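[Automated response] Your request has been received and processed.

Submitted sequence:
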Amino acid sequence: MEHTLQCNVLKCRKELGDRALVTTCYIFQQHMSKTLTEKYSSLNVHLDKVVNEANAEIANCHNKLKDAEIDRDELRKKYEELLRTCKEKNKKLLQTQELYDKLKRKAMLGQVQDAAEDAVESTLQAQPVNSNGVESQEPPYFQSRDALYGQSTSSLHDMQRSLGPYGNSQANIPTHIGSWPRTFGAQSEQDERE
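Generated structure:
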């Protein structure tokens, strides 16, 4: 029985002559090796390209992250400065509000005091009305010294200096009064007994 020679490659499996056996398989293997090498090279180039793009994207992301961190730090500093400024302004506002409230209270107390003084003064200066509905001419019970005596305090001091030993001005004493008036009590009874 004779066996036909066939190529060892399953895709090929052609019948080969004795002399063509080695050359054909060698050429085919060379062709396959060249094809695989080209595919490997193209895949290697593609892989390098993908790796480079990925590395560039990663580097870009790192740069963006660094920029974002710098912006975050700047924003944090600005926030702290604004917070500090806001606290200071709030403190000043509270102080101003307290001062305003104090001044407002003083002004209101001053107005109330002025109104009370005006009310008391108008009440004191109002002339009382008698039972007939006619205003009496009696002076009010409480008057200021200036209004009562019709002169200023300084003139009163000058007048006190010119007073006599009994507290009365010598010029104001009537000439017809020379002695104390005689009382009509026990002395008049003694006169009757005599």
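Summary generated for your ticket: Residues 148-156, 164-186 have pLDDT under 50 and may be disordered. Helices lie at 21-125, 145-149, 153-161, 186-193.
If you did not submit this request, please reply to this message.
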